Amino acid sequence: MHLRDVGEVQVIESIRQRSRYLNDVVIPIGDDAAAVSWKKGWLQLLTTDLLVEGVHFLRERISMKDLGYKSMAVNLSDIAAMGGIPRYALVSLGLPEDLKTSELSEFYNGMYELADAYCVDIVGGDVTTSPIIVINIALMGEVESNLVLRQDQARVGDLVAVTGELGGSAAGLALLLNPQLCLPLEIRDRVLALHDRPHPRVHQGRVFARSGMVTAAKDISDGLSKEVLTIARSSHQGAVIWTDHIPILDETRQVAARLNIDPVNLAINGGEDYELLFTFSPTNLPHLQSIAIQENISFTILGEIVPEQFGYHIIDSKGIRQPLKAKGYNHFQGE
Amino acid sequence: MHLRDVGEVQVIESIRQRSRYLNDVVIPIGDDAAAVSWKKGWLQLLTTDLLVEGVHFLRERISMKDLGYKSMAVNLSDIAAMGGIPRYALVSLGLPEDLKTSELSEFYNGMYELADAYCVDIVGGDVTTSPIIVINIALMGEVESNLVLRQDQARVGDLVAVTGELGGSAAGLALLLNPQLCLPLEIRDRVLALHDRPHPRVHQGRVFARSGMVTAAKDISDGLSKEVLTIARSSHQGAVIWTDHIPILDETRQVAARLNIDPVNLAINGGEDYELLFTFSPTNLPHLQSIAIQENISFTILGEIVPEQFGYHIIDSKGIRQPLKAKGYNHFQGE
After folding, report:
1. Domain locations in chain A?
2. pLDDT in tens, A35-78
3. pLDDT, tens digit, 9 for 90 and up, residues A315-331
């Protein structure tokens, strides 16, 4: 049997099952980041992301600066989803010999732009030759032990909400795959920027953690549908998403219209929006809304946590109920 | 200008120069691992290593089990060189779709063999498709703040010593490159094992750290000559190595004889022995020797730290002095 026959989830599951945890691991493999005991009252958060040329990016379609930015952004987003403060990064680079030193310098510019903005120190790394560009960043952060945002603590009756608007990154990708599409420059630039330079929601994650009112959280790296299912399943609950409540970026609607596809599909299954998906008790809604206004954070309620036996559903504007399925990208098996 | 024109050292230097250190970084980029503030009285050690198919290993020449073992070993060795206790690992894998699930399983077996032996928890990772096998492990450890083994604290008059015997990994590589070589099976197996399954010197590093007598330490990943130069230069001292004191593995001498090459060359420039190179005051020699006997550790004195203005030399058995040059492998520029 080959990896393409089993898929990414089973590969990760096979690692998880072998882990025995000999040290003080508070949150193991499976959440956005792992959490281990740190100084008194704090957890250390550990996360890593591997980007491979030809799989995660095409060298001719992304600038080295954006690539550096994005490599750091995806890790920052994982720390954000745990409510943490990012601190230290280890950067490993596999680089072709014919890469220009100016290109490497641009890569650093993009990486440090985000690292500096979030006070992250790059404390080590590894540089080696490689036939294709390979980037791995491991990022460490910290979070108060009693405030950490986990994915598995959602409760029945909790509302499901998301920061920002969805579908921007997917629209950017659609545009990259259909470059001939006739669209105003402002729209092109906006969705391409959302695809190449996502904003990690570190501030939002910190605000949610400190509020003490968020029961579960994840970043939307693999698509809304997959992330909602992960929160619900790991919390041993069911979930309902209301289609017409999903905040879809206006530019995404316009790209979808030109491509004659459903914008809801881009918003639900597109992934890489790096917004925060989170749950909280409806009794806390007024308080959370007032904090959000103070902190200049926008969020939208798009669903509800229900008992596990009710399953996972999506309800459209006509009240028609369909099963909620994970349609995000699955490595080794394609879509 | 391209990366092949500038070399690995300059690439790493360009990262180091950009680092400002916004958090509490005690030992920055450049040592075997970085060290940051951890719980009271302890430092956290952070290190990472990237292995790329075709650069660091050939898929047809190493078993997946040995590859898993080696990926963990090189990181454990970095923690060992700081005198630390390894704790948590993040594992990123880029894998071809046609890899067999049984091969991946073997990779885990090798990786967990070492992780279990040293009580390391694999707390997270990333798995993705890739046209070539790419492995990145980031490893976290801890060490008492006042006992950490740095590379930059060697003092004039210190003796330079090394654990074990050198040249085994280089002899293994020479055998892989010359498989037709006629040699007894015991010798073949021994040097191939030393190449594919190096023993990280975690126990030795802990003993040296706890002794409080070791002034500087590094693991020999890039060859003895390069590592001696790194200790001396970063300590702002000079160094002398006595050729006929270098402990050369007997099997390495036999492989060298068959290949008609100098075994000293394999021992000095070969690299990947993952023994510990360390310095200490000669007044502490009796005490360190008695500890080593108790702890079942063997080491050999092979040089001395001298004032910086004396430079870096190697003295052969006839008393002839030559400049000590870093001949280890340089990524982007080959040998």
Report:
1. 3-144, 159-323
2. 998 888 999 999 999 999 999 988 888 899 999 999 999 999 99
3. 998 999 999 988 755 55
Q: Taking CB atoms and an 8 Å cutoff, what residues of chain A touch B87? A: 23, 36
- To the nearest whole angstrom, how far is the Cα of A46 from the nearest Cα of chain B? 7
Tokens of B82: 């700081």
CB B157 within 8 A of CB B237: no
Low-confidence ranges of chain A (pLDDT < 50): 335
B90 vs A11, A14, A48: nearest CB: A48
Residue with tokens 């009271």: B40
Structure tokens at A296: 């200049």
DSSP letter for each residue of B262-295: -HHHHHHH-----PEEEEE-GGGHHHHHHHHHHT
ipTM surpassing 0.85, yes or no? yes
Contact list in B for residue A128 (CB cut-off 8 A) is 8, 50, 52, 55-56, 331
At the second CATH level, the architecture of A159-323 is: Alpha-Beta Complex (3.90)
How sure is the predictor about B328, in pLDDT bands with cuts at 50, 70 and 90?
A: low
In A63-135, which residue ranges form alpha helices assigned H by DSSP? 64-81, 101-117
Q: Give me the mean pLDDT over the B14-39 stretch.
A: 84
| pLDDT of the residue at B179 | 86
d(CA B138, CA B88): 8
* Cα nearest neighbour of A117 on chain B: B22
Under a CB-based contact definition with an 8 Å cutoff, are residues A270 and A255 in contact? no
Rounded Cα distance, A130 and B3, in Å: 12
Interface mutation vs chain B, best among A9, A64, A75, A126, most B CBs within 10 Å: A126
pLDDT score of B202: 97
Q: What is the CATH number of domain A3-144?
A: 3.30.1330.10
Which value, to the nearest 10 degrees, does the dihedral of the CA atoms of residues B128, B130, B134, B139 take? -10
